[in-house]
Specification:
The chain is α+β, with helices and mostly antiparallel strands and 367 residues long. It is 51% helix and 9% strand. It contains 13 helices and six strands. The longest helix is centred in the first third of the chain and has 25 residues, at 110-134. The model is unreliable at 5-16, 270-300 and 348-367 (pLDDT under 50).
Length: 367
């Protein structure tokens, strides 16, 4: 669906104005805003969309203010009724309706902005549903997982994903913050190298949520390959990550910690797994239980190299099956070459595997 389509009556000599309407709702504090979103906005906006009063919506947070963007349907009376209903609550301290100006250049141009709006809408609807039903639990894990899905679908190899994490790190720089703990780095490693989600993950329960990020990533990658982005793909994806973490309600400090941990994992910085580490337990730096299945046991550097190998083969068209991709991400090849260092093991295998034909498997399942 083209969320930016304009009526045919627009004068051809003028640039079309955005049909999106913006509504800023200000509350007493951040938590009051989120509580209102979970108890009122989630139901009001989804019902309005289901009844075609609006055709889409999305939001972004600004401290105690939520900036809603609404795409009206054909019946303006329904839109006015929706606005009156949303703003009729004593917990709202202020309401303004400024003009919405899309950041088309930042997100890669007009085509990329349409892709962004489609993703913003899907993500906002699922986040509101998650706030209403699950209280926003595991938002940090969800941010890392969805960001990884977006970047993989855009065609970024593992080290290129690390560069996006590095850009995000610089945008959320915390000069006096402590470095991520080893426990946090281990947890983030599992998230960015995970081959699949556990059965209870919100991403399994609501598959259209990750699918929206994968579709957007694939479309942005297509535009990039055809020279149709106004900015470098990694810069566009960095801006998407900023918006994603904002919508999820992840603070700037936590965003910096997660991005720093991801950079640490990606670029092979050495760290030790804490003794007695239990992935299902609450870990440091305010990241809750890890919500994915690990790609493989063993050392962190081996898992990282396996991920790089699998990503490279996928990008070159040599892996055409989720089952085969899972095998490449989970089989510890170093066990078949005892005494050979990991870098050499995976360089050898990379050189061999990139010469083979695309691998095809039929009728296989991977949990």
């Amino acid at each position: 669906m083209d969320l930016d389509s304009e009526p045919d009556t627009e004068p051809p000599s003028l640039a079309p104005a955005s049909r999106w309407r913006q509504l800023n709702l200000t509350f007493s504090d951040w938590q009051a805003a989120e509580d209102f979103a979970a108890t009122r906005l989630a139901s009001e906006l989804t019902a309005a969309e289901d009844h075609r009063a609006i055709t889409a919506f999305w939001f972004i947070r600004k401290s105690e203010t939520w900036r809603l963007r609404l795409l009206p349907g054909d019946q303006l009376a329904q839109v006015y009724a929706l606005l009156a209903s949303i703003t009729d609550d004593e917990c709202i301290r202020g309401v303004t309706e400024p003009v919405y100006r899309p950041e088309a250049y930042v997100f890669g141009g007009d085509q990329a902005m349409t892709i962004a709006h489609t993703l913003f809408h899907a993500d906002s609807r699922h986040i509101l549903g998650h706030l209403a039903t699950a209280g926003g639990t595991h938002r940090r894990e969800l941010g890392v997982l969805l960001a990884t899905r977006l970047m993989r679908a855009a065609g970024l190899e593992f080290s290129e994903q690390g560069d996006v994490w590095r850009l995000l790190n610089s945008r959320r720089h915390q000069p006096n913050a402590p470095t991520p703990s080893p426990r946090l780095v281990v947890a983030v490693q599992r998230l960015i190298t995970a081959a699949d989600d556990t059965a209870g993950s919100p991403l399994v329960i609501t598959p259209p949520w990750p699918q929206a990020h994968e579709q957007a990533g694939g479309e942005l990658g297509f535009l990039d390959r055809h020279g149709a982005l106004t900015r470098d793909l990694r810069e566009v994806l960095t801006h998407h990550l900023l918006f994603l973490f904002n919508r999820l309600g992840i603070s700037a400090a936590d965003t910096w910690l997660l991005a720093t941990a991801a950079v640490t994992v990606t670029f092979h910085h050495q760290f030790d797994t804490p003794s007695g580490y239990q992935p299902a337990a609450k870990i440091g730096s305010r990241v809750n239980a890890v919500n994915t299945s690990p790609t493989a046991p063993g050392t962190s550097s081996a898992a990282t190299l396996r991920e790089q190998l699998a990503s490279t083969l996928e990008q070159r068209g040599h892996i055409c099956s989720a089952a085969v991709a899972y095998a490449f991400r989970t089989v510890p090849r170093e066990q078949f070459l005892p005494g050979v260092d990991l870098e050499t093991v995976y360089k050898i295998l990379n050189g061999l595997n990139t010469q083979v034909r695309p691998l095809r498997c039929r009728g296989l399942f991977v949990d």
